[in-house]
From TrEMBL:
Keywords: Electron transport, Heme, Iron, Metal-binding, Signal, Transport. This is Cytochrome c. One of its GO terms (molecular function) is iron ion binding. The keyword Translocase does not apply. The lineage of its organism: Bacteria, Pseudomonadati, Pseudomonadota, Alphaproteobacteria, Hyphomicrobiales.
Length: 144
């Protein structure tokens, strides 16, 4: 099941440019659903709720990397509202910062993937990588 969710998330990220042209808000939502599923798996491993599995940990980071690679491209001016979006106007007001956050996140994810060898290294890497999530959400997401 996890691999299916992660595979779907990666597929959405890779084919997102085509889909985004027709419905970028739905594309954003689907990518974030994949990231959310990956985060749940990572959190469960870190908390010891499920056994640590290096392959699963790397899949979590791959899902993040796919999102970081192109997520910021799914915010055209025509998709500021509608579709139950929680995207804040600040995204369009400060595109350079929004994009820079994803570029920095991608570097953090790459470093996390390189250092993840066991539960302890994943715990440290996962904590570092997920800090960027809340920082970006606090600035660029409307709280519902």
């Amino acid at each position: 099941m996890l691999r299916s969710v992660l595979a779907v998330a990666a597929l959405v990220a890779v084919t997102g440019a085509v889909v985004a042209q027709s419905d970028p808000i739905e594309t954003r939502r689907n990518i974030m659903k994949g990231v959310g599923a990956a985060t749940r798996t990572g959190t469960q491993m870190v908390k010891g709720e499920i056994s640590f599995d290096l392959a699963k940990a790397q899949e979590v980071l791959k899902t993040y990397a796919a999102a970081a690679d192109g997520f910021h491209n799914h915010f055209p001016p025509t998709a500021k509202t509608g579709g139950q979006t929680t995207a804040a106007p600040a995204i369009w007001e400060n595109q350079a910062d929004f994009r820079a956050r994803f570029d920095a996140w991608a570097k953090d994810i790459q470093a996390a993937a390189a250092q993840t060898k066991d539960l302890d290294s994943f715990r440290a890497a996962f904590g570092n990588v997920t800090k960027a999530c809340s920082s970006c959400h606090n600035t660029y997401r409307i709280k519902t």
